[in-house]
Amino acid sequence: MTRRDGAPIVGMIGGGQLARMTAEAATALGIGFRVLAASEHDPAAQVVRDVHLGSHESLEAVLTFAQGCDVITFDHEHVPTAILDALSAQGIAVRPSAQALGHAQDKLLMRAALTKLGAPCPAWSQVASADEVSAFAEEHGWPVVLKTSRGGYDGKGVWVVADATEASDAMSTPLGAGSFWLAEQFVPFIRELSAQVARSPHGQAVAYPVVQTKQTNGICAEVVVPAPQLSEERALQAQELALRIARELDVVGMLAVEMFDTGAGVLVNELAMRPHNSGHWSIEGAVTSQFENHLRAVLDLPLGDPSARAQSVVMVNILGGTVGDLYSAYRHVFARDPELKVHLYGKEVKPGRKVGHVTLLGANAEELLARGRHAADYFSGTIDE
Amino acid sequence: MTRRDGAPIVGMIGGGQLARMTAEAATALGIGFRVLAASEHDPAAQVVRDVHLGSHESLEAVLTFAQGCDVITFDHEHVPTAILDALSAQGIAVRPSAQALGHAQDKLLMRAALTKLGAPCPAWSQVASADEVSAFAEEHGWPVVLKTSRGGYDGKGVWVVADATEASDAMSTPLGAGSFWLAEQFVPFIRELSAQVARSPHGQAVAYPVVQTKQTNGICAEVVVPAPQLSEERALQAQELALRIARELDVVGMLAVEMFDTGAGVLVNELAMRPHNSGHWSIEGAVTSQFENHLRAVLDLPLGDPSARAQSVVMVNILGGTVGDLYSAYRHVFARDPELKVHLYGKEVKPGRKVGHVTLLGANAEELLARGRHAADYFSGTIDE
């Protein structure tokens, strides 16, 4: 299984930017890294030596891919449970396990599990009709957040509906196999937070600083590290909550717990069991990046220090605009800001699509944010100087 | 030439660890990166998507490799001048140029050029016989350092001879094509320093902090950043010297100027026109790594900030010992030191061979060195706890 130098091979299913950035960490550590990508144009497939092309929904493709890998992990949550079970049945280490990953794949499973373990959540209920949404709203008020239990990401599969008519419209969307409707209380949050932890099979876990995230149209737009004006006590509570969820759900690898900060406390919004957009800052900004700690966790190696390397770190996503040629922006943004760290994912530019991110380290989050937004806007083409 | 997203393709000749680490920087920047490697087992060939296998001494292999690249650069200095000239004759951008690179390939050329521009050097002379070495020693004393003008690296091609007999023995070594004997004064230095700069075709240049290096058997063993107890004035002089050499020799990309610190001043020992072992600390330790700045320089992009991210940074090379399986050391070294950054190059372990390095950032160089040496020794197998 392992290579001639004793290093294991980690197989990551999915060839997106998370796999691409994990590859950089694998290269540094000298760990074998194989990617199952849908296309040779996928971000990771462009740069990784050991690429298999195939669908994550094909049992045959996944089993062939997994041959010779020491552990299988994920760039996304979309691998069908039946395939994960088949991998495990063949004795292949799948991390996180199918059972743990179920909570990131299925929001009903996730809500039920979190409620059982007493984690704070918005009020929620499975619903099958607009009438049931209205009944939910009578108790918790309009608007209601409607979600499909499976298949949603980056704002897809989520509707905020103001009344029964809008609920009915949303629910005319066909549900994927095994997916159901979930109604959640609309939470008037003051901001969103993310608490990331890494956890290994033998139970070691480390918690990254709690960060503030800003979503635009359901897509992560900005991250500020640490979350400003979050008391040490509240930050510790959020980290402990994330560590408890990781332990109780037996997560292995990175776990991101996205939270609403209501001012009075936090409510869990989403879980992701993989490296996450809210942790991209850690490549330069932490002693150990989320990508390296994901690898260390799934390999059951001792975890690295998740501390920030600067007083303040900001990450701003680069969203596709009207300019297809991202590269030419380098001449401007690099000349303007020699401290800017840029990551481009090799993706075709489409309006609103995540195509890269920028990171800045320093002392003043507002000043770093202004510089990061300028660079991201210049890449997008919304400003030209 | 360029890819569909507008990004250029950088072709690096040589598939060693420098190409491997440059690949990580290219991936982050979204720059196309192609490597000409001698073997699929070369460090970079194991991880880079776009690998050509072939010899850097084959005109056909190099020309085929260069087709479709926007710029050609180097992992090592061993590409014959005739091949570099052929590339340039075809209108392919070669950076650094054959003319500049000549000074890193040929120590006689280098000494002549440095002497012409007034850079401080040990006394030197071309010699053709032991008698000429003795004549040189009459003026400058024994021992004498004998070098082959071409083909030396990591201590190879260098002899310290105590008398005419030893000189005669050394000079019985057959010289490679175009190589001559060079005698240099033995310098009783108190330590070695390295000053690295990046320079772009339009003449922008940045200087990294001057570092202290420790060589063991001609191989870089340790780097401390910044060089301890080097006055700001002396550090500035060393940086200015490196910047002047880069400008006068028209270097494009990274230049490392290795220097002897005699206590009274510095003397130039060697030049390297590529990323260099004395700059590996910059991956985590600087705002912009030497690998990223090498890419930015050869692409004529504005250069990144070379400042250190911590008060003190140390790098310790991992040398091969008796243990072939480097990976298993992770369980110990990562548990012992969660802040440790490790880079393994995927090379087969041979005694004394550079197979990786470790980096630590902090406040106290001595303390960081002790931790770095422990980790490196554990990988090598010279300690087992």
TrEMBL record, chains A, B:
| Any Pfam family | PurK_C
Spell out the GO cellular component terms annotated for this protein, sorted alphabetically and separated by semicolons.
cytosol
Q: Annotated pathway, please?
A: Purine metabolism
Supply one GO molecular-function term.
Answer: phosphoribosylaminoimidazole carboxylase activity
Q: Name one GO biological process term.
A: 'de novo' IMP biosynthetic process
InterPro entries documented for this protein: ATP-grasp (IPR011761), ATP-grasp_carboxylate-amine (IPR003135), ATP_grasp_subdomain_1 (IPR013815), PreATP-grasp_dom_sf (IPR016185), PurK (IPR005875), PurK_C (IPR040686), PurT/PurK_preATP-grasp (IPR054350), Rudment_hybrid_motif (IPR011054)
Keyword Transmembrane helix in record: no
* UniProt KW Ligase keyword: yes
Entry keywords, A to Z: ATP-binding, Ligase, Nucleotide-binding, Purine biosynthesis
According to the entry, every stretch annotated as the ATP-grasp domain falls at 111-299
Listed HAMAP family? PurK (MF_01928)
The record, for PANTHER family, names: PHOSPHORIBOSYLAMINOIMIDAZOLE CARBOXYLASE (PTHR11609:SF5), PURINE BIOSYNTHESIS PROTEIN 6/7, PUR6/7 (PTHR11609)
- What's the protein name? Unannotated protein
Q: Which organism is it from?
A: freshwater metagenome
Its ancestry begins with:
unclassified sequences, metagenomes, ecological metagenomes
